[in-house]
Amino acid sequence: MGFKKIDHDELKTKISPNFLGIPIREGGKLVQKSQREKKIESSYTGSMSEVLILNEEFLEFQYQNDGTRKAVTGNGNISIFNNSVKDRIWDANLQFSGSQFDNQEKENNINLGIFEPSSNKILKYEIVNSDDLPDLIKVNENIEVLSEDITQEGLEFPENEELNVCNKKHYLLVIGKENKVKFLIDIVNVSNSMLENIKFKKLFVNNFYDLEFDCSKSKEFKFTNNSVECTINGLNPGEKAELTITANIFPKKKENIKTGKIEITYNLSSNVISGVKINQFSAYSHAMHAIEKVEKNDAPNHWECSLIFENHSDFKLKLNSILIYDKTKSKKILDLDFSTSGTTKINPRGIYKTQHFNLIDEKEPIFSRKVEYSVDYKTENNSMITTRFDDIIFKIVNITIKKKLPEQEIKSFEETTLNSEIIINNQGTVPIKGLRIVEKIPEDFLPPRNLSDFTLYKSSGKLEIDDIELNLSPDDDDPSHEHIIEISINLKNDTSKSVISTEDFLELKYPFKAITPNYKKDYDFPVKVYAYYPMYEKSEVEGLRGHYVLMDDLSSKDTSSLKITHKRRKLMIGKQIFPGRSSDEFAIYIVAKNGSNIKLSDVDITDAFPNSFELISSNVEHKISKSKNNGEQKISFTIDSLLPYQEKEIMYYLKSLSGKDVSQSELESFFVG
Amino acid sequence: MRLQYYETMDDKSKEYVLYLIEQIVPQFTKSELDTFLQDLTIKPTKKSKSSKSKSDQKYIQIGNDIGKTADLSKLTKEQLRLCFQIFISREKNDTFAVKWRFYQYIKYVLNLNIKSVKINLDPNIDRLLDFIIETVDKEIILVLCYDVLELKDFNTAINQLNEFAKKQNLIPDRIIFTTSKSFRNIPIDSPIKIINKEIEPELWIEWIEENCPFNKEDLLILNNSELKVAGFNFTSTDDLLNYIFKYSNGGGQISIYKQLDFFTEVSEEEPEVELIWKGIMLK
After folding, report:
1. Which residues belong to CATH 2.60.40.740 in chain A?
2. In this structure, are residues B78 and B12 in contact, taking their beta carbons and an 8 Å threshold?
3. Which of A170, A446, A656, B209 could form a Cys-Cys staple with B236, CB 3.0–4.6 A?
């Protein structure tokens, strides 16, 4: 009372009377659900059955993205179906041959024994020498990144290169920006057979969005979370299907993004790739043969005979030969070889009768006979092929630019030397091959004209590079107009050397002069940086100079500010004389007012008073000196600094030496300040 | 192939059929036969929707009287015929037949250490469960029997199992769908959720080995007549080996022979015995 626990694969694929419904055909692995079974079942019409020999092959071609074939694996199933619901077949023999077996020399002849009604047997074979199998389709994937930030420059490799082009193209996406990508995919049938039921699938591993699809051969497509699928009914030999997928992507991380694998499955009906051939199948089913012997009415002992072959089965039977001898097998009476004279097929329940042959015999004649026949059969071939193409990667690029001017403030209308520092950071996953830095130096300033004034630094120190070029426009010393500095670094040599590797930066330093900066003008020092990335992976080997160029300019927040101040002094020194406590005393009050916007330092103030006076006190440190000639004394004060718009007071007291009253007029007009 | 159909048998005498029924192994115990006969007499009823509750299902402990061999001699000719059609010719493939053949099978299948089996004798044809098996390891196995398992049966059963589990407060460890034939679209790869537990449903199919080395009519002999069983008890070599493992005395090197057409042909000649399996069985 045996039961068996069935697993999912058995339930889906195993051919057994216990399972109801169409099985998924197994071919080493499940490639896709086959509709073939339906066809087999429908071939039974009630009155006629057939033996169907179905040779199906399942192949998987794997290619690299450049079109190089990586591997081919495959296997085949020869399935023999007895589609009759009532008739058995027996002594079934199958002969098949092909170059894809281990024992290639031999024709394989297998006895399959008995087939019960509605049963089948499957022979499995593995395809060897699969490297010799031809390509059936070629796929050409051309990717375009429609980013406005990236342009192409220099010699281009021919467009529409196929995947099998040995040199791989780089594809770049700009991080932190929306990139529009277009995939142009051509599928070409390079086989000699019609390819049917082509299912195209492109897998996207990252978050592409706003997907749009167009196909020259089909409008049947669907989008899933991570793929685009399309079904093409068929492609004739040499025919091409063109597919276009556009999508947007916004790279957020500094990680390469895969372009997406391509998977194409298709059928090659009426054909097997490996060349395995069904040469012969033979089997017996229900039939009867007899020799009808009729003694002629008008001639005793004269017998009119014929062989009757009756097909009692639902199959068409194929008569191969009839050989009739006399009883002793010494005399051949009838020898029909249908293999040479044309096949004779007997329909179900049909009868074949040979022509009469006459004999004279006193007794009922006895014969020895041999009838060779077989059920007729139909062969079908089918190949189901999966082709997979690896994906490549979109590399991520971007740069950041910073400009520094250590001298943040300079005086107007004065010649000053400034130091410019431009820092370019590589934010991408691919080294920057070369750079073009363009900076505008406005009028009233003069850039250096010698390349030796420009210095480059990397994180590891000073960068020594031969391939550097300075282009100054116009190349003169006239500060009345603007100048454009253009520095090209590593753009001439086809070397693999890069200017800024990943995770690195480049710093450009050079001095320039402010000649007559005007505080009423706003000066801008705009910088544009063109980062050059090689278009091909082996550009240095192949001499391919095509480049992708990413342009970026200095954003407003990273702009260095240069303040030009109009620095002019404005100083007022005032003096007042006050009477003292008595008439022989005076207080002198001096005020120094800085009316400018600059700081004044070491302001010296000198006053003078007659020799007839003596200094009593002062609130500020002072110096007194006697003049020999004009009988006066000088008193000097020094104010260390006067900040913009600051005022400072000096007060000192004088007394007449004689004790006489003195008039104020004696003290006037001695002030020096 | 003379035991293929009851009607085509040359000898349908009560004695001969009884003789054959007595060869059924594992032998019925008294309680098993009583339950079988009771189940046989139940007339299936269709319950109205309002009384669809499964709480009144009749679960009866079965097979707990090992050693008390059933007396088959009292079976009527009709009962013998049914036994023949279920267990010998296996021409009956309805749910009842599948249920009782499955019960016979679990008595010797390996890796199923049964502690107790409860059989459902509910006459309702929409009844859900057929067996509740408790193993020595305290696993609860629910068994549902079908003649042909369709997707809608499967889906209905899943829903009802949930209701049953809630009502009975019984969360099973395994759920076995057993059937004679199954449609291929049964999702046995998807776990089913019973209350909060996810269980992968099992599908057990009545399996008849292609090119089985013995026929129903053959007598199968273990070693030097250590054990003799009728071929009709088994449908595959694995099935036979399971039984021998459980019901033979020892392991080691064993040979199984078949005596051709033992149960259908009388021959005075030396019986033809053929080796069908040789190997080592470790107990």
Report:
1. 398-565
2. no
3. B209
Interface touch B183/A19, C-beta < 8 Å: yes
| CATH architecture observed for domain A571-666 | Sandwich (2.60)
Domain(s) of CATH 2.60.40.290: residues in chain A? 571-666
- pLDDT tens digits, one per residue of A575-586: 888 887 777 788
3-state secondary structure of B39: helix
- Identity (one letter) of the amino acid at A239? E
- Contact A369/A333 with Cβ under 8 angstroms? no
Measured between CA atoms, how close is B51 to chain A, in angstroms? 33
Assigned CATH topology for domain A398-565? Immunoglobulin-like (2.60.40)
Mean pLDDT, contiguous 10-residue spans, chain B (283 residues): 82 92 94 92 65 58 89 93 94 93 92 90 81 92 93 91 88 94 90 89 92 90 89 93 85 85 78 84 73
Q: pLDDT tens, A384-436?
A: 999 999 988 889 999 988 888 877 777 777 788 888 899 999 989 988 988 99
Nearest Cα residue in chain A from B207: A3
Write the single-letter amino acid at A43: S
The CA-atom distances, in angstroms, between A72 and each of A2, A57, A273, B186 are 41, 13, 12, 34
Sort out which chain A residues have CB atoms less than 8 A from B242's CB and list them.
Answer: 2
Token output for A25: 């055909």
* Distance in angstroms (rounded) separating the CA atoms of residues A148 and A143: 15
Q: How many CB pairs under 8 A join A and B?
A: 73
Shortest CA distance from B93: residue in chain A: A18
Partner residue opposite A11 with nearest CB, options B184, B233, B234: B184
Distance from the first to the final alpha carbon of chain B:
34
Q: Which residues of B touch A26 (CB under 8 A)?
A: none
Among chain A, residues having any CB pair with chain B shorter than 8 Å are 1-8, 11-12, 17-23
Quote the pTM value: 0.53
Dump pLDDT digits (tens) for A485-499.
999 988 876 666 788
Name the residue in chain A with its Cα closest to that of B235. A2
Task: Find chain A residues with C-beta within 8 A of B182's C-beta.
Answer: 6, 11, 18-20
A280 strand-pairing partners: A95
A-chain CB neighbours of B185 within 8 Å are 21
- Chain B residue whose CA is closest to A12: B184
